[in-house]
Amino acid sequence: MASTTNCLASLARLSLSAPARPTAVSIIPKFLLPSAATPLARHASGGGGMRKKAPKKKKTYKTFRSYDLTPMEQFSLCDAMRYIRAFEVGRPPASVKYELSVKLKTGKGGPVVRNRIRLPFPVKTDVRIGVICPDGSALATEAQQLGAVAVGQESLFDSIRQGNIPFNRLICHTDSVDALKKANLGKILGPKGLMPSAKTKSLTSDLKATMQELIGADEYRERAGVVRMAVGQLGFTPQMLSDNVKSMMTHIKEDMNEIDDTHIKQLDEVVLSSTNGPGFSLNGSFSSTDPKVGPEHLQSVM
Amino acid sequence: MVGVIRRLHKLKAILGVRHGPGAAVLPQDVSRIHMEFAHLFNDGHMGPRKFWRTSLPRLKYWNPAIPMIVNRVANQEGPATLSIYFREPGVTPKGDVQQQSSSSEGFSKAPAPAEGERVVQIDMKGRHSDQILSEFMAKSGAVPVTPTAQEEMEIREAEELEMKAKIDKERVRKMVEESKREKRLIQQAQSEAAAIKAAL
């Protein structure tokens, strides 16, 4: 071991003194030597040799990138469904969903499109609602009749603190807002996205309307300029899927109109994909381009 | 969202679902197709799996109205069979024939033929997917679809793109390897230098 270290040390000294003849036993490549050992580059122009160039600043954009869609092949709904059904053949239809991605022309930051929608043909039906309202009141019995799985105020807060959360949606009646604020449940409910707030429309004075909207309603929101949501199950017929897509698009357009004019929101592209299939950019038409294949051919059992 | 050109290249997969082995139009009298095989490829279930993943999508594309049911079971020792159901000539199809949808838990057993239906079965166990396909084509009487001149050109373009991608992948792999090698050498030299310092 000592011999190698000696050897290395002498090598280092050699390279420090002057760039000598290349020795036969150079172990360390030149680019690995300490920078002090390499001769400094000096140029006749002078001055500029030592100065470091400032790193090039990356250009920042204020809007999300939108692409030129002319080269994009676009499909009618029936064509896209025909392809998707071919890609998903033999999959259990309950586990495969049609997904819609709506790309918007929009700036980064600022308000986002965010709302709840009740599709004409619901995609999932596993909503369990918890309701915060005064214990033993008429509201509580009403909520239970409407199908809430957990109703109450202090009793519900206690069960949440103990980690017993049997619901996946939580709404709060306006009478119980103060109690909710005092209960300090934000730490538990916040990360789960369950904390009632006016923003998510889960703070309400009309329990019936909100609950009916929640059952069979899905939430969507714009992330990175794209709204994504499941719009159908694989077993849906073209007409059912078309209804769902249309209702989704009208909803999003309404939401965009509500946002003030200082922030630009425009529709850019609509893409239909599925759990295992590729994405098909839609051109807005319904019927198939193949005259032999109509909507009635696209509703057989998968 | 991903850029348009990259998505377009990805979408070339639809060419693969239109043409290739299995792209065929089934005769009018085929009413449904049922496949049953196991989840894993052990014990001779590789061929059926491959047939499902490669050929069945093409069949489904060209015959969108025919139900093609796949029943995957957990039992590896079980059989792997493909059943083709034919409508007897002259029998009008009944609308109320109950057909279970595909299942990955073995719930969708091959149904008994309905009135005016006959079944032709193919034993797929331990056979290559190509063999299964050729037997399927013979027994079902399917007519293969040939790509048009335009589509042939598109397929060629996709292949060329694939070749270019191969070259680029090789180039990038070399670059990555080189930078990894340099990093490794630097680390080795630094540790050696540290050892020298410690020895002094």
Automatic annotation (TrEMBL), chain A:
User: Superkingdom of this entry's organism?
Assistant: Eukaryota
In its keyword annotation, does this UniProt entry include Ribonucleoprotein? yes
* Xref: Gene3D superfamilies: 3.30.190.20, 3.40.50.790
> Region Disordered: which residues?
282-302
Which GO molecular function terms does the record list?
structural constituent of ribosome
Name of the protein in question: Ribosomal protein L1-like protein
Q: Which CDD domains match?
A: Ribosomal_L1 (cd00403)
Question: What PANTHER family does the database record attribute to this sequence?
Answer: 54S RIBOSOMAL PROTEIN L1, MITOCHONDRIAL, LARGE RIBOSOMAL SUBUNIT PROTEIN UL1M
Q: Could you tell me the keywords of this UniProt record?
A: Ribonucleoprotein, Ribosomal protein
> What does UniProt list as this organism's lineage?
Eukaryota, Fungi, Dikarya, Ascomycota, Pezizomycotina
Please name the source species: Podospora australis
From TrEMBL, chain B:
The annotated region (Disordered) lies at 91-116
Its main localization is mitochondrion
Note the SMART domains from the entry: L51_S25_CI-B8
InterPro entries according to UniProt:
Ribosomal_mL43/mS25/NADH_DH, Ribosomal_mS25/mL61, Thioredoxin-like_sf
| Biased composition regions of type Polar residues, renumbered to the chain | 97-106
Annotated ranges, domain Ribosomal protein/NADH dehydrogenase: 42-143
Q: Which GO terms describe its molecular function?
A: structural constituent of ribosome
The protein's UniProt keywords, in alphabetical order, are: Coiled coil, Mitochondrion, Ribonucleoprotein, Ribosomal protein
Question: Does the keyword Coiled coil belong to this entry?
Answer: yes
Q: Where in the cell is it found?
A: Mitochondrion
Coiled-coil annotation: which residues?
158-192
Q: Which SUPFAM superfamilies match?
A: Thioredoxin-like
Supply one GO CC term from the record: mitochondrion
Recorded protein name is CI-B8 domain-containing protein
List the source organism: Podospora australis
